[in-house]
Specification:
Deoxyribonuclease I, Chain A, alpha+beta, 4 helices, six-stranded mixed β-sheet, 282 residues, seven-stranded mixed β-sheet
């Protein structure tokens, strides 16, 4: 049975000034230099399926919205969420940012039925991205897939999700297998060595970052660095949450933010600098 691989919504507010400037510049034949953009990337594992009784509280989404309002991140990557959680956190993002906010959700797959995996409340369960796209907005595309390597004993089949904001970046998230570190490493290698290079070959190259709960550790056995391509930037929260970025991204700082015992992971905030790619049509 065919499964719709993701749900996506887009929240728009009018941003007349920057769009007018972009329109005026559209006729200019002089190539413009790349523009540096500072981005705050907030990773959160909310343990909100209802299945993991040791970390489920039912309060993690509300706390996540509080953190978004306080920290005003540009990008939020989300693991262990239900589909409806994206709506709540998208609204939180639109309250702290003018302009365009895009949101995407990718369910895990139930390996026994082929259907999307479900939270206890019946909603689809998986990972998500919510992102404020700095003006001028040139459009966005969602990419997703399932890993070829899965644990046959675990019905939850892991997936990856990338949002391509044209001219800005690819932002990807994933939640890798917890039953085997070797399996998580194989999934990590597939994402960074196969899936993302395929995106780069099909689309115009853009700076790319992966932020998520990889169930692998810096200094672990196996070590998460085993799947980080040479030259890529890498930061971690001291645990299993990682940010990996292409070499053209500069990482300025990292910080953990308490979630007030609403989930079993602190939020992980990374501030980075990248460059907006010049519009080839300009």
């Amino acid at each position: 049975m065919a499964v719709r691989p993701y749900q996506i919504r887009r929240s728009l507010r009018a941003v007349v000034g920057p769009l007018l400037v972009a329109a005026l510049l559209a006729g200019c034949s002089v190539a413009r230099p790349a523009e540096s953009i500072r981005l705050g990337v907030l990773q959160m594992n909310l343990c909100n399926s209802g299945m993991a009784k040791g970390c489920f509280t039912g309060r993690a989404v509300d706390r996540a919205a509080e953190v978004i309002r306080a920290e005003r991140p540009d990008i939020v990557t989300l693991n262990e969420i239900c589909a409806g959680d994206i709506d709540v956190l998208e609204r939180a993002m639109t309250r702290v940012h003018d302009g365009i906010v895009v949101a995407a959700f990718q369910p895990a797959r139930n390996g026994r039925t082929g259907e999307p995996y479900r939270c206890v409340n019946g909603e689809q369960y998986g990972v998500g991205v919510v992102a404020h796209v700095p003006a001028p907005y040139r459009g966005h595309t969602v990419h997703n897939g399932f890993y070829p390597a899965q644990d046959p004993a675990d019905p939850e089949q892991r997936a990856w999700l990338c949002v391509e904001a044209l001219g800005v970046s690819f932002t990807c998230t994933t939640h890798l297998a917890y039953t085997s570190a070797d399996l998580a490493l194989a999934q990590c290698a597939h994402l960074l060595d196969a899936a993302i290079p395929a995106l780069h070959s099909r689309s115009r190259y853009q700076p790319t970052l992966v932020s998520g709960d990889l169930n692998l550790r810096h200094g672990g056995s196996p070590d998460v660095r085993s799947c980080v391509p040479a030259g890529y930037r890498h930061r971690h929260d001291g645990g299993v949450q990682q940010l990996i970025a292409t070499p053209d991204v500069t990482i300025e700082s990292t910080r953990s933010i308490g979630m007030n015992q609403t989930t079993d992971h602190a939020a992980f905030l990374v501030t980075l600098v990248t460059e907006r790619q010049p519009d080839p049509a300009a």
